[in-house]
Amino acid sequence: MQTVGISAKINSPMALTHARRTAEELEARGHGVCYDEKTAETLRLENVRCFTKAELGRNVDFIVTFGGDGTLLSIARHAPQGVPIIGVNVGTLGFLTEIRLEEFPRVLEEVLDGHFEAEARVTFEVDVRDSDANTKTYRVLNDAVINKGALARMIEMRVDVAGHYVSTFRADGLIVATPTGSTAYNLSAGGPIIYPTMGAVVITPICPHMLTNRPIVLPDSLPIEIAVITEKQEVFLTLDGQEGLPITASDRVTVRKSAHTILLVHSPEKNYFDVLRNKLKWGE
Q1: What value does the mean pLDDT take over residues 247-253?
Q2: Residue-averaged pLDDT of the chain
Q3: Which of the following is catalytic: 36, 69, 240, 251?
Q4: What is the β-pairing status of strands 84-89 and 62-67?
Q5: Cα(10)–Cα(94) distance, rounded to whole angstroms?
Q6: Whether 65 contacts 78, CB under 8 Å
Q7: For 7-11, 78-82, 265-269, which range has the lowest pLDDT when averaged over its residues?
Q8: For this structure, is 36 an active site residue?
Q9: What whole-number distance in Å separates Cα of residue 258 and Cα of residue 24?
Q10: In 3-state terms, what secondary structure has residue 209?
Q11: Whole-angstrom Cα distance, residue 168 to residue 203?
Q12: H/E/C letters for each residue in the chain?
């Protein structure tokens, strides 16, 4: 018996409806079902197995998310190595969630049978070290973003790569994106699209003061250290657009490739370039 994890966008009635229906069908076929806590609470389910999003992947054979990219990201960056994730797009643009509702039943059957296509996506580890050498570590699938507060002025950030000084950026912020995240905030800020399985990382300044500060693509084997030079301003580090914390001039942020990958199930009906054209209207 396979155990399936279910997570849905809790403010989407359609996502919740499909989550409930899928769970009922799986249970009727003898499969175990676990929910993330918020999904179970919103569906008002009782006497069911549920876990935090950080723990869900450790208790199932694969995970199905119903919603958009945010729903998938909230699960994926905590998922254990080798646990496949089916991202079902429900009523949103959805770039990572490339599985349409119409094709989901077929994809689900393939995963249950063990015959499916999936792609390992690299993640980054983000270390935040304070002046007392205390370090907190986070994992991201898309990006780590340093940006100024709403009323703050432009900030200065020193960037070193593999111990070598690169530049001091004067900008509204700085994005360090994985290839997967290159089509997210990075793209909106003028950064390049990177094929998702490339061994690369892109550094993109947000609204830089100098026009010569352009995005740069580097090998993902090189650690990137960022130090905020500007003092007495609100500066935040945001992880995958979902988790954030304030940082100061005494903190050091280091981004490096993680040994941990995320396994995303492919749509059998389209490839990466189909998704670029259909979702981002790329090339039109």
Answers
A1: 94
A2: 92
A3: 69
A4: parallel
A5: 16
A6: no
A7: 265-269
A8: no
A9: 36
A10: coil
A11: 13
A12: CCEEEEEECCCCHHHHHHHHHHHHHHHHCCCEEEEEHHHHHHCCCCCCEEECHHHHHHHCCEEEEEECHHHHHHHHCCCCCCCEEEEEECCCCCCCCCEECCCHHHHHHHHHHCCCCEEEEEEEEEEEECCCCCEEEEEECCEEEEEECCCCCCEEEEEEECCEEEEEEEECEEEEECCHHHHCHHHHCCCCCCCCCCCEEEEEEECCCCCCCCCEEEECCCCEEEEECCCCCCEEEEECCCEEEECCCCCEEEEEEEEEEEEEECCCCCCHHHHHHHHHCCCC
Q: How far apart are CA 284 and CA 277, in angstroms?
A: 8
Using alpha carbons only, give the angle 129, 239, 77 rounded to the nearest 5 degrees: 105
pTM score, whole prediction: 0.92
Domains, the chain, with CATH or none: 3-117+266-280 (3.40.50.10330), 124-258 (2.60.200.30)
The pLDDT score that the predictor gives to residue 231 is 86
What pLDDT, in 10s, does the model give residues 145-190? 999 877 667 899 999 999 999 999 999 999 999 999 999 999 999 9
Tokens describing residue 146: 């340093």
Per DSSP, helices labelled H in the chain are 13-28, 37-42, 53-56, 69-76, 104-113, 185-188, 272-280
Q: What number is the average pLDDT over the span 250-268?
A: 94
Q: Cα dihedral sign for 8, 13, 18, 19?
A: positive
| Segment 105-142, tens digit of pLDDT | 999 999 999 888 899 999 999 999 988 889 999 999 99
Contacts of 58 (CB under 8 A, 6+ apart): 51, 80
Which residues have C-beta within 8 Å of that of residue 258, sequence separation ≥ 6?
122, 123, 124, 125, 139
Eight-state DSSP code of residue 184: T
Q: Is the pLDDT of residue 66 over 90?
A: yes
